């Protein structure tokens, strides 16, 4: 191949990428192209989905995320092609045919297979054979043409004790090693074998010798086979977890005899070739020693990638549902972090979440000081006007809950008491962020404050915690951490922006997830707020250091200003459309502020009358909907779960009981439900509904309050089997 200009190796073609994305995502080329342009111009996904509907023809965040992900994958693939092409050209082995194959390749694994023959290799049996001068003999074997000499004569010509070839058998063995490697390096063969394995292969897991007793938690994988085509992600990740922990051996199983028949017919066709028997044996060696392990590695990589993606999606969906859990609202709240020996830490926060006071009570064993605890609680409740009580669901939670219930009855108080998840609270309490927020307080008090905040507004509090610590995923520590972090971060951003943020009260953590802001600008917004007081108008944000017009464009409509100088600033109407709202108000002969929240006035406006080249009908309809109900919260109404009295531990459960609980996690194989007994029960996917469902998330979500029937209890293994579909039977 002639020497090429480096520019010819730039493999990313936007037009071709758009066509491929359009086909894979079933979207129009125009939608793809417009979205790519918006993303490349630095626009965020929440902003594009909400305020650029005309450009994307109404794509939602999920569709825009899919475009962004595929675009990134195609660009990475193109970059890898460029690297491979330059590498192969540098060693003088790039042909026109190979160049075209690489450029047209659309699969990363297949691309790497094309590169295999040109990769620098570690020392192999074939390498040693070449060093002993046996490559010419290997070439003869590969051609399988009449030799014109006897077998003995040919082999003796390569015998050289000084080079480590003592006899004819050694010469033939070395040459066959070279042949085996040449066959194994064939990218077409590798690709065919990979495709065959993905279609008809099996993943097999077996317990390692001597590991049965210590690996009981992986018992279901001790002798298991799963079709590669059908294996669920959670099962594959379970097998790999068992292998990582040293209890299982996970391998690929193919129909070896069928594969070998195919390879032999391809590589060693029927003939009178002198070395045919040796070549047939070489096919088997090539398959067992080289091809099968390489195929197993490729299959495991592909399954891992698929499982990582699916697990990340499950985690992100659960996280989104948890973040958007109904808030109890702006009420004075008491948070209680239960404990035994060290007591229960109590903290009170006001309706804005500001810390007011704390104390420690000892109503549980070993002290059982219910009288002293009652006095302290009653004092805090009366002094600060407590309206809500949040109790963490960890150690001593049911005992604490029972004490608080009796306390409220004895005192004649009708406060709302709720058990809340404390997953990740201890991690937050010890974090740098918590130390900055409450530098004068002990870790345990910070935990109680966090519990109170979780009841008031789950979203505002949970954004302070690493999503992986919240406990709503499956095998989250086994999946690709970069992929997981990206998925979870985008989910948090989506939730925060769908609700909106009060710029004058929001924490740095919450502000950092607003479209276009990020951690550094969030710090500057808070610093500006602390120095100069609350923001009165959205446009005042432009006075924040280094908050430019692009960041303002992305963020402004997701930031709310309560009681400021412009009522539109407390809505999701983008400032770029305030002029349009003025036109609407002028049509009715009122000020724009009069439109905000006035359904009757808004109903008099005809959307078609306000469509322009910049603002199409979707945007106008969004504006009218927002004006009718400004700052609407997409979250459901708050509802507390009622745990059954007397059911405080797994030992209190009986088969057949029907109990109320809260869904804490949804996986591909079922849903976990908190019954208030310190151990979540599992509703297997087969017990969720009478009809077939392919995914539990079709009918159940994190945070749902459900009634379930207890099917079985294993106290020793701390397992509770539940049913949703059998309730009432």
Shape: globular
Enumerate how many helices there are, as a single number: 29
How many structural domains in the coordinates? 5
| SS strand fraction | 5-15%
| Second-tier CATH architecture of the largest domain | Orthogonal Bundle
Write down how many β-strands occur, each being a DSSP E stretch of 2 or more residues. Answer: 15
CATH domain class name of the largest domain: Mainly Alpha
Question: Which terms would index this structure?
Answer:
729 residues, alpha/beta, Arc Repressor Mutant, subunit A, Tex N-terminal region-like, Nucleotidyltransferase, domain 5, five-stranded mixed sheet, five-stranded mixed beta barrel, 29 helices, 15 strands, globular
Protein described:
With 729 residues, the chain is of the alpha/beta class. The chain has five domains: 6-118, RuvA domain 2-like (Arc Repressor Mutant, subunit A), CATH 1.10.10.650; 125-312, Tex N-terminal region-like (Orthogonal Bundle), CATH 1.10.3500.10; 333-456, Nucleotidyltransferase, domain 5 (2-Layer Sandwich), CATH 3.30.420; 512-628, Orthogonal Bundle (DNA polymerase, domain 1); 650-723, OB fold (Dihydrolipoamide Acetyltransferase, E2P) (Beta Barrel), CATH 2.40.50.140. The chain contains 29 helices and 15 strands. α12 crosses α15 (276-323) and α14 (256-267) packs across α15 (276-323). The longest helix is centred in the middle third of the chain and has 48 residues, at 276-323. The termini are far apart.
């Amino acid at each position: 191949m002639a020497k090429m200009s480096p520019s010819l190796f730039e493999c990313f073609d936007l037009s071709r990428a758009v066509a491929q994305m359009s086909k894979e995502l079933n979207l129009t080329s125009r939608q793809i192209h417009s979205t790519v342009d918006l993303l490349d111009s630095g626009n965020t996904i929440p902003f594009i989905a909400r305020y650029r509907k005309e450009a994307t023809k109404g794509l939602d965040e999920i569709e825009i995320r899919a475009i962004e992900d595929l675009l990134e994958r195609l660009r990475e693939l193109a970059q890898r092609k460029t690297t491979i092409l330059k590498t192969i050209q540098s060693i003088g082995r790039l042909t026109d045919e190979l160049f075209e194959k690489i450029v047209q390749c659309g699969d990363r694994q297949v691309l790497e297979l094309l590169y295999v023959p040109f990769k620098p290799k570690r020392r192999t049996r074939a390498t040693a054979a070449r060093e002993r001068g046996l490559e010419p003999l290997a070439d003869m074997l590969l051609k399988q043409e009449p030799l014109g000499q006897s077998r003995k004569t040919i082999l003796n010509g390569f015998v050289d004790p000084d080079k480590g070839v003592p006899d004819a058998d050694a010469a033939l063995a070395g040459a066959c090693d070279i042949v085996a490697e040449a066959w194994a390096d064939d990218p077409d063969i590798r690709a065919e074998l990979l495709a065959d394995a993905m279609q008809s292969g099996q993943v097999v897991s077996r317990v390692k010798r001597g590991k049965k007793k210590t690996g009981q938690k992986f018992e279901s994988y001790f002798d298991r086979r799963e079709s590669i085509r059908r294996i669920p992600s959670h099962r594959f990740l379970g097998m790999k977890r068992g292998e990582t922990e040293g209890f299982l051996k996970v391998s690929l199983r193919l129909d070896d005899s069928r594969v070998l028949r195919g390879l032999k017919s391809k590589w060693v066709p029927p003939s009178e070739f002198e070395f045919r028997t040796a070549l047939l044996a070489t096919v088997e060696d090539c398959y067992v020693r080289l091809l099968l392990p390489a195929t197993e590695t490729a299959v495991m990589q592909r399954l891992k990638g698929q499982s990582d993606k699916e697990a990340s999606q499950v985690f992100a969906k659960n996280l989104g549902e948890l973040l958007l859990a109904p808030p109890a609202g702006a009420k004075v709240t008491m948070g209680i972090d239960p404990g035994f020996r060290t007591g229960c830490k109590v903290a009170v926060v006001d309706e804005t979440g500001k810390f007011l006071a704390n104390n420690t009570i000892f109503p549980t064993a070993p002290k059982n000081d219910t009288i002293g605890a009652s006095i302290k609680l009653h004092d805090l409740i009366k002094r600060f006007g407590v309206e809500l009580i949040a109790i963490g669901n960890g150690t001593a939670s049911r005992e604490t809950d029972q004490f608080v219930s009796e306390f409220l009855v004895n005192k004649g108080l009708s406060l709302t008491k709720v058990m809340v998840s404390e997953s990740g609270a201890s991690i937050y309490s010890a974090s740098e962020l918590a130390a900055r927020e409450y530098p004068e307080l002990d870790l345990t008090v910070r935990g109680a404050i966090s519990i109170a905040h979780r009841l008031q507004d789950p979203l505002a509090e949970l954004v302070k915690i690493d999503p992986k610590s919240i406990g709503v995923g499956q095998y989250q520590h086994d999946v690709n951490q970069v992929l997981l972090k990206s998925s979870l971060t985008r989910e948090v951003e989506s939730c925060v922006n769908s609700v909106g943020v009060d710029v004058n009260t929001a924490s740095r953590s919450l502000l950092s997830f607003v479209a276009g802001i990020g951690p550094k600008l969030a710090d500057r917004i808070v610093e500006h707020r602390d120095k100069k007081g609350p923001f009165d108008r959205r446009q005042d944000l432009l006075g924040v250091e280094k908050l430019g017009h692009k960041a303002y464009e992305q963020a402004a409509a997701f930031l709310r200003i309560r009681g400021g100088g412009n009522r539109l600033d407390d809505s999701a109407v983008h400032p770029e459309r305030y002029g349009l709202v003025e036109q609407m108000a002028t049509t009715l002969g009122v000020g724009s502020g009069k439109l905000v929240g006035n359904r009757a006035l808004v109903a008099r406006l005809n959307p078609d009358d306000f469509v322009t080249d910049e603002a199409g009908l979707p945007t106008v309809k969004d504006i009218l909907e927002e004006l009718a109900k400004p700052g609407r919260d997409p979250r459901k109404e708050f509802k507390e779960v009622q745990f059954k009295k007397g059911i405080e531990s797994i030992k209190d459960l009986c088969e057949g009981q029907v109990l109320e609980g809260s869904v804490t996690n949804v996986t591909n194989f079922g849903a976990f439900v908190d019954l208030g007994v310190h151990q979540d029960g599992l509703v297997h996917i087969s017990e969720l509904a009478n009809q077939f469902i392919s995914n539990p998330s079709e009918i159940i979500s994190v945070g749902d309050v459900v009634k379930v029937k207890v099917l079985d209890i294993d106290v020793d293994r701390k397992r509770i089997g539940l049913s949703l579909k059998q309730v009432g039977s």
